[in-house]
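Reopening this one. Same input as before:
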Amino acid sequence: MKAQIPWVLAIILIVSALGLINSQYRARKIFTQLEKAQAETRQLELEWGQLQLRQSSASKHSLVESKAESDGNMVRITKSNTEYLRTE
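Same output, byte for byte:
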């Protein structure tokens, strides 16, 4: 009976060691995934900032006005080119 105790303890020790190795492997794998997700988050935040900057510059009045004149063949509204309709 006493001879079996060291074998049982050895088996428990090996199983514990394998469990520890497995948990460390999984922790490293999860940490790597976390690092990748954080890097992707930083990249997406950078792109979001660039898109917001691009949107704010594209919506400036002068840019919209010049685009309308060049692409849409539109002209500025002045008193000379305004037509008034009268209802009687």
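So the earlier flakiness isn't reproducible anymore. For the record, The chain has two helices and no strands.
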